Amino acid sequence: MALNECGVIISEKWLRSAEMRPRVLLGAFVTMPNHLHGLVTMKSVGPKVSVPVAKGARSAPLHRQADSLSSFIAGFKAATTRRLNELHGTTGVTIWQRNYHERVVRNSSEWERKRRYILENPMNWPQDDENPDLKKYRHLE
Description:
This protein has one domain: Alpha-Beta Plaits (2-Layer Sandwich). 41% of the residues lie in helices and 17% in strands. The chain is built from four helices and four strands, in the order αββββααα. It has a two-stranded antiparallel ribbon with strand order 1-2. Strands 3-4 form a two-stranded antiparallel sheet. α1 packs antiparallel against α2.
């Protein structure tokens, strides 16, 4: 996968986000044209603290566990969104989908399967259902 400038920024922010969080250990990852795959381990470090993250007009503040996986992902998405908006001279443009998909990896053989899937994912991009080029030419089949 040859990364464009946006892909390079996303990859750099992924690595930098982990450097800033002592609980996060990164495994294999790959930045794809429209998503990112990564293995993340959350280490146990110190007491857990809950922090407010948002307040709606008619709701109580939402809380996210500080140094949790969701906090890591939220920080990464916010940092990349800010940087990509700066790059394109825009403000407030949404880059990421609202949530993320997570799966608990329960043993070393599953970890290895996931690692291999991530590393081989770029080779599967031509057949990926989310590949816009595939959608464009699918009617020709």
